[in-house]
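To close the chapter, one final illustration. This time we ask the reader to focus less on the individual chains and more on the assembly as a whole: which components sit near each other, and how the overall shape emerges from the parts.
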Amino acid sequence: MKSYRKELWFNIPSRRAFINITPQVEECLRDSGIREGLALVNAMHITASVFINDDESGLHQDYERWLENLAPHEPVSQYLHNRTGEDNADAHLKRQVMGREVVVAITNGRLDFGPWEQIFYGEFDGGRRKRVLVKIIGE
Ligand code: ZN
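The assembled structure is written out below.
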């Protein structure tokens, strides 16, 4: 069995964003040389997500509005977590809803997606360097 590991680095200038990282994961898969197996892609930070859905700007705006309704950033004083001096309690909650990782089957050297599936990095507390782990195993 072969295994491959890579960290993808991001530095999103805004507080929140959704980035399609499918091309980077496909590049990892090419570099790995693995034709049959599994790819794990996970955010390495507790205020960011990796998830799969459609690459459609209306949907991304809907996510933004929905997550802000669930866990508004302001007022930051509404969260117990922020009594530590942080202001990112909402980002922890948004990450919980949007998930930590995805696992994608690799078939015949390709990410074996369903219709319209793409992999996204969701940033909820940007303005600093953060990582996504790509781990691919198989043969
Ligand atoms: Zn925090």
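Strands lie at 2-11, 17-20, 37-43, 48-53, 101-107, 110-111, 118-123, 129-138. The CA atoms of residues 3 and 116 lie 27 Å apart. With these observations in hand, you are ready for the problems at the end of the chapter.
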